[in-house]
Design goal:
With 97 residues, the chain is mainly alpha-helical. The protein is built from five helices and no strands. It has a domain of 48 residues. Helices cover 66% and strands 0% of the residues. Helix 3 packs across helix 4.
């Protein structure tokens, strides 16, 4: 009995025909980049009990460990993707006028 492939599987087979392997140099470079991205460093910070409890509460609501939430916030900040809700509301109010 011949197996029938779904759309995604047919696309994979079609693309496999045009596959060209990555050179050893490029493969090593990609592996190095991935290794660097996985590196993590432990740090210590001083934070008020109130703020820490709020972070833990928010993390619980999101279903995340609080340290993961803090890391995510820092990542968004350094990449200029942390959004200030008050600024957005102010902008929206100005646009409505």
């Amino acid at each position: 009995m011949k197996m029938r492939l779904n759309k995604e599987e047919r696309e994979i087979e079609r693309m496999a025909e045009t596959f060209t392997p990555v050179s050893k140099k490029d493969k090593d470079r990609i592996a190095g980049l991935l290794k660097d991205m996985k590196k993590k460093r432990s740090i210590s910070i001083r934070i008020s009990d109130t703020v820490l409890e709020q972070v833990k509460r928010h993390a619980g609501e999101e279903g995340l460990p609080y340290q993961t939430l803090i890391s995510s916030i820092l990542h968004k900040y350094v990449n200029h993707k942390l959004v200030d809700e008050a600024s957005i509301r102010k902008t929206m109010d100005l646009l409505r006028r």
